[in-house]
Amino acid sequence: MHRYPFLRLLAPFISGIIVGDFLFFHYQSIWLRLFLVFFICSTLPLPVLHSLKKYNLRWLFGVFVYVCFFLAGAALTSWRLQQVSYVFPQSETVYRAVITDRPEAKKQTVLCRARLLECRDSLSITSPRKNVLLYFPKDSTSYLLQNGDEVLFSARLSPPSNNNSNTFDYARYLTRKAVSGIGFVKRGRWAVATHNSHRSLRQIASKYQERILSFYTQLDFQDDEYAVLSALTIGYKEELNEDIRESYSVSGASHVLALSGLHVGLLYGLLLFVLKRIPSKKLEMKLFRITIILITLWGFAFITGLSPSVVRSVVMFSLFAFSEFRTGKYIPMNILAAAALLMLLYN
């Protein structure tokens, strides 16, 4: 196991995440403080243990490192879940929010994922900075909503809840997705304040994805062809109907429609095949190959809207690309564990 340092750190960190998640939903009031106290206490003796000269006691350093990563995973998970919690006003309140993703048309409503910027009542104006799901009545005005629009609306928001205790725990699912509240915005109770405001990197990526979709439309791709092409190339699956999904599922190829490590791996392999044709062991050539690979991989992730599955795969293959600087033989499992650890630390 000494050949897999990141794998050894990943195991206790994931264990801490699982424990922190479980305890948050059952005893959320106290565990975060306890995890932080234990984490600080466990890190204090690390310098002393690392300097031990007795070989038979060096294992103590490893034990404390494992404990630190376990507590770090638990504390980080509890803290992030705690940040999602928010006490909304019991009555209808005026909010200002920015739409953070492409609106999704449902049967009778338009679903918008948004981030609250302001909460206005008769006494004060606060800045919640929480993610919410907003449902607008499906009409000609709600169809015009776009990613990046800033809206003013009046509604009663509430934390996620379960209508039926015997079904899927939808409230816990949304909490893990960092969604603090849900609300239905009635017709005539909202207005667009500005367009393209507060644009994040992911929102900019989504705009470029929309441009590619428009380009496909200009090339006269329609119906099923357009739906499959959009899913295979840039990961846009909103146009896939049930018949297409069922056909791919029956044939055992449904995973092809979801951009993931398979597609990024094929792109990475193609780049390596082409760039390895340039025989050179100089540092400049290695740097050139890595630069081309990174630009291409992250450019691909960008036009897919920076979807989490693609970003995870690109992070992993980026680490594979950097491993070319190593003089010895790299271990794929260790690189995979390093990518997983980085992604879990981020989210």
Automatic annotation (TrEMBL):
The chain crosses the membrane at residues 7-25, 31-52, 59-79, 256-275, 287-310, 330-346. Coiled coil: none annotated. One of its GO terms (cellular component) is plasma membrane. Residues 30-189 form the DUF4131 domain. It is found in: Cell membrane. Residues 232-346 form the ComEC/Rec2-related protein domain. Keywords: Cell membrane, Membrane, Transmembrane, Transmembrane helix. Its main location: membrane. It is a multi-pass membrane protein. InterPro entries: ComEC_N, Competence_DNA_uptake, DUF4131. This is ComEC/Rec2-related protein domain-containing protein. It comes from termite gut metagenome.
